[in-house]
Amino acid sequence: MCENHAKNYLTPSAILFIIRKKQKGGLFTIYNQMYARRRRLEAEITSIKAQLASLPEGKLICSRNGTRYKWYRSDGHTPVYIPKKQQHLAKQLALKKHLTFLLENLKQEKAALDSFFQYYDPARGETDPILAEHPEVRRLLASYFQPSDQKHFNWMNSSYETNPNYPERKTHKTTSGIWVRSKSEAMIEAVLSENQIPFRYECALGLGDTTVYPDFTILHPHTDSIYYWEHFGLMDNPAYCQRACSKLHLYTSHGIIPTVNLITTYETKEHPLCMDTIKRTVEEYFL
To answer: Can you give the pTM of this predicted structure?
Structure first.
C-alpha cells in the first residue's frame, strides 16, 4: 500500500495526469474512485471472511423431490440429510454458499485493481530531474502547479515572513521549486501542487506571545478558510514527541484544533508517512 519515500514523487507521466485531471470526470477522478473502491473491497473481504469463519462446516446441496426440495450437507464425500427441524443449519449453509460466491467475485475485482495500481501510479518514481534541475522547464509548467483562481494565486505568491531558523536543513527541492526540510514535506507539497491548492510553506503565525511556523498554511480552494498542516516526523524520539505535544497544546489553546482547522500527520522510522495517506487527507479536506 505505502510506497517507499524515494518512489513517491511527481514523474513526467504525472504531469499529463495533472493536465488531464482538470477535465471533469478525468483521470484524477477515476483514479480516486478506483482507489476508494479498492479500500471498500478490502473491508468487505475482511468482513465476509469473518462471517464465513463463524458458519458451520460443509456445503449445502438442494435436491428436488417433485414440488419439494431436500437439503443435504456435504463434506465432499457422502451427503448427509438435513431434516426440516434443522432448517437453521440449512439457512446457515445457504448463507455460506452465497458468501463464498460473493467473496470470490470481490477477490477477483480486487486482484484486477491491484494489478492496475501496480502498473500505474501517478506518484511513483524519483523526482523528475527536468523539473528539479531546469528552472525554465519548471517555469513553463508552473501554471499546472499553481492555483487557477487569480485571488488564490496572488495570496500564494505574495511575500510573507518565513521561518529563519536552520535554513541549511532545507535540503529537499520540490517540483514547484521551493526547498523543504524532509521527503515527507516534499510529498505533501507535491500533492497540494498537483491539485492546485494554494499554500504557503513555513509562514509565520502569531499565537499570543509566540510565533510558530506551520509546515503548510493552506487556503481552502472553495471556502477560502485557512487551514494549517503540521507533519511530525520523529515521533519515536521522546524529546521530539514532547515538543510536538507542547506545540499541539499551543495550537488548541488559540482555537486551532486538530481535524477542524489543523491537519496533523505523523511518522516514525518504522512507520513512515506514505503517499496514500497524504492523498486521502487532501481529498478529505480540500477536494
So the answer is: 0.56
